[in-house]
């Protein structure tokens, strides 16, 4: 080919054609420099379970290109919302770690937490089916510690070199930039079917965990295996957990979709308003602790990020509590400019050879260099540590520190070799001295090869309702896939998890039912994985009280007082804003209407009606009632509301509280129903 002729062609189309390449063309995989590659799914490590090596030029090129693909929003976790707070440890963790912020229960450590969706852009909705980020920056007296967590304890991949691939596959397809913030398309499921290590994460993604009710009711997991190291140099393997005090609760899929249109800011609004009202979100920090001698004591590899440590085998020890008590002052300056990095650790917390963790240690700094305009992103106020920091780094884009003097190097005599190093006994960070002995190799230990046992463990642990939700999610997602062979491959893949699951999917998307012989033989379950076993509290739940002119003033007001005393938020809703006159000439102020709100933004509805309600009011109240019923939510009815409920002839009264004109009795029943969250055994018409 005459390259000069092609590039200098007078035809613009000819010029562009030189740079085009079709996906279907058979090509050899190379680096951007043209070096042919023998492997693209395994990083270069020191032995099969050793650390990733920085000399892996292919990994660095691939990840650097990926990290710099978007300007200015994050490539992933673009849509986020954040808050300030504080953390206190319950008891000293000195036997396990020398990290100072985990020593003294009287010390409050400032924190900044950013919650996020993963796939969507900044302008996408809050409620897609997606994993959620749960990143916490601890401003400790020894420096910043970033716990960069998710609301799902495992991940799609075992090696970070594949991270660009999974994100490219799940993002909007490049030829038409659709769909936004959704995995329900061909490229994602094609990738899943070709990468069976994704099985466990996909099970979580298809579960209720992927559509959380609130950031306040969402667990967080550090995903990776870290180390605690104490003053004597003794190490333990650990995993981090955030446990929400309010329990872990979710939306239903129809509700999540409707919220995306009616209130795309639903989760961030919930966090913002809760903090403003003083309903501060609380999370307890837990750690699973494992002695080094037990590293190989399980039927899975503890360094595999696609695996959990079942809580029944390695209990979660609750060691402290975080409270979010202040909203941000400026979203851009704080939420958007905050720079988390899994490599930001303090003395007493160290890394392991988890291959996904090893590659993340490179990626985060590389990303911030582009997104925040250079190497001084640590000087942005939200990122600055609360302790002093000194080094010989100078200049660069957006430098804010004004360094005095002529010395910017070590070793030096002009400044008495300042700043000087600090030995370990005086707080200097010293990496855990793990023995590394292995050949440079692109391979993975055989202990990482089982992709289906824990997927089956997760399935076994679900309640019947949760299992049905997983089946329905697969049907929806795969129903959007256009290529029949991809649908078939995915069903065949998940037959290796459970035949019942695969068969239920297959019968609704017109693919062949796979064999039952291939399913995992695991019978074990882990009750901790089911949200049915989470705390259920009425606190901070939001209900709509629907009233019209002529409502029963004495009864309704007493019921409102009782449910507010239980910590439930009440929203008075009518067909108009302003005062609504009761039958005793008292008033309640309506701040919500049928036009401005929908039942999907509330956890429950109480329909009290009113003697002057017209047909349109009745119609709207019945719509609220029907939607709440279909979403398995608690419903309270009295007076005209009871008449409308009876007219609807619902097939079930489960979770429906009917007034007996005894406000105290009704209130208690309704509060208990709100605490129950959902009534999954309700028969839906």
Automatic annotation (TrEMBL):
| Keyword Transferase carried by entry | no
* Family listed: Belongs to the catalase family. HPII subfamily.
- The EC code for this enzyme is 1.11.1.6
Organism expressing this protein natively:
Oceanobacillus kimchii
The record's function comment reads: Decomposes hydrogen peroxide into water and oxygen; serves to protect cells from the toxic effects of hydrogen peroxide.
List, alphabetically, the Pfam families matched. Answer: Catalase (PF00199), Catalase-rel (PF06628), Catalase_C (PF18011)
Here the segments flagged for biased composition (Basic and acidic residues) are 14-29
Q: Which residues form the Catalase core domain?
A: 30-418
Q: What is this protein called?
A: Catalase
Top-level taxonomic group: Bacteria
Renumbered to this chain, region (Disordered) spans 1-30
Going by the UniProt record, its keywords in alphabetical order are: Heme, Hydrogen peroxide, Iron, Metal-binding, Oxidoreductase, Peroxidase
Q: Which reaction does it catalyse?
A: 2 H2O2 = O2 + 2 H2O
Question: Which cofactors does this gene product need?
Answer: heme
InterPro entries recorded for this chain?
Answer: Catalase, Catalase_AS, Catalase_clade2, Catalase_clade2_helical, Catalase_core, Catalase_haem_BS, Catalase_immune_responsive, Catalase_large_C
């Amino acid at each position: 080919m005459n390259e000069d002729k092609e590039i200098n062609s007078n035809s613009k189309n000819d010029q562009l054609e030189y740079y085009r390449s079709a996906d279907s063309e058979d090509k050899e995989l190379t680096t951007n420099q043209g070096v042919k590659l023998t492997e693209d799914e395994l990083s270069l490590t020191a032995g099969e379970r050793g650390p990733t090596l920085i000399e892996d030029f292919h990994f660095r090129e691939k990840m650097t290109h990926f990290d710099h693909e978007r300007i200015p929003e994050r490539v992933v976790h673009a849509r986020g919302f954040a808050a300030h707070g504080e953390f206190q440890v319950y008891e000293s963790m000195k036997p396990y770690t020398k990290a100072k912020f985990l020593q003294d229960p009287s010390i409050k450590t400032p924190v900044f937490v950013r919650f996020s969706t993963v796939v969507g852009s900044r302008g996408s909705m809050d409620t897609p089916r997606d994993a959620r980020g749960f990143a916490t920056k601890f401003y400790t007296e020894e420096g910043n510690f970033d716990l960069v967590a998710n609301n799902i304890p495992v991940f799609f991949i075992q090696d970070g070199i594949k991270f660009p691939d999974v994100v490219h596959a799940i993002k909007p397809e490049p030829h038409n930039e659709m769909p936004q913030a959704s995995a329900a398309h061909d490229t994602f499921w094609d990738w899943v079917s070709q990468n069976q290590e994704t099985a466990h994460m996909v099970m979580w993604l298809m579960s209720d965990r992927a559509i959380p009710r609130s950031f306040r009711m969402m667990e967080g997991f550090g995903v990776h295996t870290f180390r605690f190291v104490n003053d004597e140099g003794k190490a333990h393997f650990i995993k981090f957990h955030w446990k929400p005090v309010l329990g872990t609760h979710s939306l239903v899929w129809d509700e999540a979709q409707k919220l995306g249109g009616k209130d795309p800011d639903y989760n961030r609004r919930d966090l913002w308003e809760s903090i403003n009202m003083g309903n501060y979100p609380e999370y307890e920090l837990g750690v699973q602790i494992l002695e080094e001698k037990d590293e190989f004591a399980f039927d899975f590899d503890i360094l595999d990020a696609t695996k959990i440590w079942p809580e029944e085998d390695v209990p979660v020890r609750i060691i402290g509590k975080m409270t979010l008590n202040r909203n941000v002052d400026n979203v851009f300056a704080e939420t958007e400019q905050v720079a988390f990095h899994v490599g930001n650790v303090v003395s007493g917390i160290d890394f392991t050879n988890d291959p996904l963790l090893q590659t993340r240690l490179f990626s985060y700094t590389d990303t911030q260099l582009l997104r925040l305009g250079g190497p001084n992103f640590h000087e942005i106020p939200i990122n600055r540590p609360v302790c002093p920091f000194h080094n010989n780094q100078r200049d660069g884009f957006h430098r804010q520190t004004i360094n005095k003097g002529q010395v910017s190097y070590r070793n030096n005599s002009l400044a008495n070799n300042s700043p000087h190093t600090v030995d370990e006994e005086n707080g200097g960070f010293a990496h855990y001295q793990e023995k590394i002995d292995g050949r440079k190799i692109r391979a993975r230990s055989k202990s990482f090869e089982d992709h289906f046992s824990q997927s089956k463990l997760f399935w076994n642990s679900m309640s019947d309702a949760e299992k049905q939700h997983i089946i329905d999610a697969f049907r929806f997602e795969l129903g959007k896939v256009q290529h029949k062979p991809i649908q078939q491959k995915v069903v065949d893949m998940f037959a290796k998890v459970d035949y019942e699951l695969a068969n239920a999917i297959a019968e609704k998307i017109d693919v062949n039912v796979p064999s039952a012989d291939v399913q995992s033989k695991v019978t074990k379950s882990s009750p901790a994985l089911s949200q049915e076993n989470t705390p259920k509290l009425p606190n901070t739940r939001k209900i709509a009280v629907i009233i019209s002119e002529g409502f029963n003033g004495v009864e309704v007001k007493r019921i409102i007082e009782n449910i507010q005393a239980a910590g439930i938020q009440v929203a008075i809703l009518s067909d108009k804003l302003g005062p609504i006159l009761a039958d005793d000439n008292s008033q309640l102020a309506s701040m919500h209407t049928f036009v401005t709100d929908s039942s999907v933004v509330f956890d429950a509805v109480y329909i009290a009606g009113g003697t002057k309600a017209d047909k349109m009011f009745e119609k709207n109240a019945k719509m609220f009632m029907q939607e709440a019923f279909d979403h398995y939510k608690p419903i309270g009815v009295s007076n005209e509301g009871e008449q409308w409920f009876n007219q609807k002839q619902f097939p079930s009264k489960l979770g429906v509280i009917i007034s007996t004109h005894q406000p105290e009795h009704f209130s208690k029943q309704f509060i208990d129903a709100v605490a129950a969250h959902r009534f999954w055994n309700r028969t839906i018409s």
